[in-house]
């Protein structure tokens, strides 16, 4: 009996230690001249890389139609490129269903609301536990017109201040955000260096996932 109790106690200790492991999500965005790069890194214990996503180029394509984002995604396993034409076809089909098949559209909206509620349940639970460990943003803007440069720098300060205020109302910050807006008079430039590090624990992810499963089960039971 004492051996089983020791094993049970050891299991509890291991489970608790595992649940307290920190997960760090690093989001880095850099824009220099006309080049855009986005990195997303997920670490366990700050040291072990679990997932890496790199978007080296973000372009806006038009081709005599609506502007559309096009990019190339780099993950540890493969390189994937987005397909604007296919995405535009998908949107066109949605519009066709909305205009010509109202019954199908209502069914589609019901499914959409169901999965949206699932997402909100998971996101709200995660938002209660996520902490912003670090947020830094440096924007360098310049033009040949000094008045325009000053006006845009003021606008960037206003937008960044509002954005930080909104984020602070939803997430706790472990240190004050560092925002720098640098004017570059006499030459055209628009560079961005943005870094945000979020922290949560494995236990928080498990709890949020269990609540998501519970919400989905209740929804299925209610529909039945």
Task: Give the SSE layout.
Elements: H1 2-19, E1 22-32, E2 35-44, E3 48-55, E4 58-61, E5 68-74, E6 79-81, H2 84-100, H3 102-127, E7 131-142, H4 146-168, E8 178-183, E9 189-201, H5 202-223
Parallel strand pairs: 7-8
Antiparallel strand pairs: 1-2, 1-9, 2-3, 4-5, 5-6, 7-9
How far apart lie the N and C ends?
Answer: 45 Å
Strand arrangement, largest sheet? Answer: 3-2-1-9-7-8
Q: Please tell me what the overall shape is.
A: flat
Task: Work out the number of β strands.
Answer: 9
> In this structure, how is the largest beta sheet organized?
6 strands, mixed
- What value does the Rg take, in angstroms? 23 Å
**Which consecutive residue ranges, at least 5 long each, have pLDDT under 50?**
66-70
Determine the oligomeric state from the structure: single chain
**Helix content range of the residues, please?**
40-55%
The total count of helices amounts to: 5
Helix/strand-derived category reads alpha+beta
Order of SSEs? HEEEEEEHHEHEEH
Strand content: 25-35%
What's the pLDDT, averaged over the residues?
77
Provide a descriptive summary of the structure in words.
Helices cover 47% and strands 33% of the residues. The protein has 224 residues and is an alpha+beta fold. It has a six-stranded mixed beta sheet with strand order 3-2-1-9-7-8. A three-stranded antiparallel beta sheet has the order 4-5-6, with no helix packed on it. Helix 3 packs antiparallel against helix 5 (202-223). The protein is flat, with a radius of gyration of 23 Å.
Q: What's a quick, concise take on this entry?
A:
The chain is of the alpha+beta class and 224 residues long. It is built from five helices and nine strands.
